[in-house]
Amino acid sequence: MAPVGRLSNGSSFVLPADFVAARVALRPAELAHGFRSGYLDEQGVVQLAEHAIESGAPTLPSIEELGLLLSEEYGRVPELVTEMEESDPSAPSEQTNVWLYLVLAWIYDHRDEFADPLAEIETVHADFDYPEGIEGLVGYLPAAPGQPSGPGAVEARWKAFLDRQGTHYARRAVLD
Question: Residue 93: CB partners within 8 Å, gap ≥ 6?
Fold first, then answer.
């Protein structure tokens, strides 16, 4: 069983497959990374494989096998994920960036469920090894010159980041 996605502050969650599929057409190594990081469970991996097959896009044999697994066969998911991962030359940074976007999108969409959603961003920033692209979302870092500061400004930058990344991943799916 995949570990539950857990941030260093103790927050944990598994992203639903429909949430992921609505935002990104994952490449095989990205799907594997999400599973290995605990942001997807076995059922989510299988559902995303099913979605890939239903989309009509060419798929790897391991994705086809994943998409056909019955729930009592979910023990095979790690083995098939390894096969899928080995056949995708995606750069590790690409694999991480898509999950950074998805985790931040999940927190944003569910921010009312977190005691301090902006503190969650700080944790994500640390857990994803301090990516430069989200520094403007981290409350304890100064805003860029000319940028407003404060929680409202951070939330506006957060939404803008998600919009840009969402456009990027939607365009990527069309171009692939």
Answer: none
Nearest to 163, CA basis, from 23, 17, 21: 23
- Three-state DSSP class for 12? strand
- What is the distance between the alpha carbons of residues 104 and 136, in angstroms, rounded to a whole number? 13
Is the Cα dihedral 149, 97, 159, 15 positive or negative? Answer: negative
pTM for the predicted model, two decimal places: 0.87
Per-residue pLDDT tens digits for 36-78:
989 999 999 999 999 888 887 777 888 888 888 888 889 989 9
Q: Are 38 and 44 in contact (CB under 8 A)?
A: no
CA dist list (Å): 4 to 10, 37, 115: 11, 8, 20
Domain range annotation of the chain? 5-86, 92-175
